[in-house]
Amino acid sequence: YKEEQKQEYEEEQKQEEQNADAGYLPFPAPFNTVNIIMILFIANCFCYIFMNYVATDDMRDFAVEHFTVSRDNWWKIYPMFTHSFYQEQLLQLLIDNWLLCQFGRSVLGFLGARRLLAFWAMTCVGGTAFHVGRQQFELYYGLDPLEVRGRCYGPNPFILGLVGVEGLIFRHLNFMQSPPVPFLVMTAFVMIIDVWRIFTTKPEEHGSPTGGALVAYVFWALPTKLFGLSRLTAAI
């Protein structure tokens, strides 16, 4: 029975790998299908070019108002999601897009496009809730409203969420072989650093990636049976 179970698991793993590589567009994964990784990559590149080389001052003000999120506009709901498409710094653009491709490809192969889209939406809401909650906490304890003005933008909550989910998926495998460091240890280390940032981030900055990272554990724990994530977990 155990031998049959092991063989069935290996066949499922091979099928998942084939699904990750298969696509209807002539590009390498994750650009071989229309998915949230591809959309974020293109949208961030477009936004950077638009904000730095095309937009007028009025256009920039409009983009900041509708494509970033803070305590002033979160209640409109859509900024919770549109903020992940906004980018205006070249170095941040390069780092974010590289991380999206590195972590997004493997997680996309395990979760599929629809589950990954749902996970992206959850990290957007989680990152916004964390960011706005932190701002309200600072205002409650007497900080000047002019200081608590940070706006959240970029796919950072989603990226930290991808790191968390990848650590959970590959928790039985080693991130480093010598010395052996499991993926789960790496993920926990990233989480600790990100939570530490909560207490060191300046009032005008945002800590939304922490909210996205914590969503990974909620996403993994609650809908495991519904999404069938347990059978997708990598094992040695």
Name the features.
globular; mainly alpha; two-stranded antiparallel sheet; 2 strands
Please summarize what this structure is.
The protein has helices spanning 2-21, 36-54, 57-67, 79-82, 90-111, 113-140, 156-169, 183-200, 208-221, 224-227; strands at 174-177, 180-182.
Any overview of this molecule?
It is a single chain. Strand 1 and strand 2 (180-182) form a beta hairpin. This protein has ten helices and two strands. Strands 1-2 form a two-stranded antiparallel ribbon. The mean pLDDT is 79. The chain is 65% helix and 3% strand. Helix 5 crosses helix 6, helix 6 packs across helix 9 (208-221) and helix 7 packs parallel to helix 9. The chain has helices spanning 2-21, 36-54, 57-67, 79-82, 90-111, 113-140, 156-169, 183-200, 208-221, 224-227, and strands at residues 174-177, 180-182. With 236 residues, it is mainly alpha-helical. The radius of gyration is 19 Å and the shape is globular.
Separation, N- and C-terminal Cα atoms: 18 Å
Number of helices: 10
What is the typical, i.e. mean, pLDDT? 79
The class by helix and strand makeup works out as mainly alpha
Order of helices and strands: HHHHHHHEEHHH
Share of helical residues: 55-70%
Low-confidence stretches: none
The number of distinct β-strands equals 2
Task: Output the radius of gyration.
Answer: 19 Å
